[in-house]
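Problem 12. The chain below contains 220 residues. Write out its predicted structure in token notation.
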Amino acid sequence: MRAMTDEPKAKTLANGIEVWCSYEKLVPVGELKPNPRNPNTHPQRQIELLAKNIRYFGWRRNICVSRLSGYIVAGHGRLMAAKHLGVEIVPVEYQDFASESDELAVLVADNRLAELAAVDLNELEKIASEWKAVDFDTILAGFEPADLEGLLNPKGDDGDDDDDDRHDKELDKSDVTVAVGLYRFRISQADFIAWCDRVKQDAGFDKESVLKEIRIRLGL
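Solution.
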């Protein structure tokens, strides 16, 4: 755990782990019930990274439980990470739902909506440079060093190509590099946001429909 000098204090401790998020009560992990219909899966490596993140940063997000069914709505991975850490209590928030359909929609959307996001590689590169300058452990952000390098430099460039370096510096700073699968393209941030909105409005918000429409429009 990080030293907390001249910084805001956590709301409380849960088995020695700082709790920063809002919550209604600290609940024993054995009392929490995963939703048996949860379609979101959590590989072991993800749980290990999430556990390390919680151990270092404390609880920044609670586990959300439905008052309607008593099942977890958001936070299945966090519960698994808590068990991985061996903690006995976790911060929990309870929410009301009008129907099972509403509850399941929030359950699915917890992961699904995040999948529709695109990565601004320019901004990620700036953040990664700042992390490197202070020797920050990128694992805490969910990135193995090799994974981060592979995302930012998928062709394995070693940085020795002066022509490429000069070309990068000449690119318009208002542009962003966006990754779509294995492809990268550049577009102004304003145009990209407007373009994404149009695609989602035309294709709907289903991930496969959006990706299919993007491939069609990019000629991929």
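Discussion. The chain has two domains: 12-115, 121-218. Students who got a different answer should revisit the alignment rule from Section 12.3.
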